[in-house]
Model the fold of this input.
Amino acid sequence: MDKIIIKTEEQINGIRKSAQLAGNTLKFISDYIKEGVSTEYLNNKIEEYIRDNKAIPAPLNYNGFPKSCCISLNNVICHGIPSEKEILKEGDILNVDVTTILDGYYGDTSTMFTIGECTDQAFDLIENTEHALYLGIDQVRPGNYFGNIGYNIGRFAKSKGYSVVYDFCGHGVGLEFHEEPQVEHSCPRNTGYKMQPGMIFTIEPMINLGKAKAIIDKNDGWTARTADGSLSAQFEHTILVTESGFEILSDVGEYDIFK
Done:
């Protein structure tokens, strides 16, 4: 395992600005998410907003990824590729995942949206997945084990009858798109490395109504779907370990995710 980077104050300030831009990008795109809109249209608006703010969309051409953000609809767990053929309709739920590069620094965040009236089951999944994220964030403080993030997320999700995706995890971020450590969302208590001030990473639980297993689309090599076709939800923030606890670098305040 490579060393976990302890960021300097200058780096933290740069990563904070990028993470705030990523968060504001989600706030911006929320006004455009509605029935009849294509995910390609949303992708283009997101890229335009990021570039207007003198930044670069990190996913574009990353290991061959063809778009500027990930939009994951209904049973897509993550890495959904926006398409002009994918049109939002009543009852859909979707995750929009944005990563920005601003002045060389990365910020990463995602949130869920709904289109019109979704089912009670879908609504509960979204609310509980967001709650699981914050249970994980509450474990961030100097000296605590990374494993306790996943332990608390997993325990809560399973208590609700959900499964936690194990194929994907959170990660260090800031100077690169993906750094050490891996941040798992279901793991034993008091395991892994201990957190130190200056560490920055994402927590991004992916929670399924059905089985945990993900299947990668063989045609595009990216889109990860639930193995049983069940709904999936995800929320993500970029988190800094401070001297006394944490700072959510990508938090830009509340906005409406239920459209």
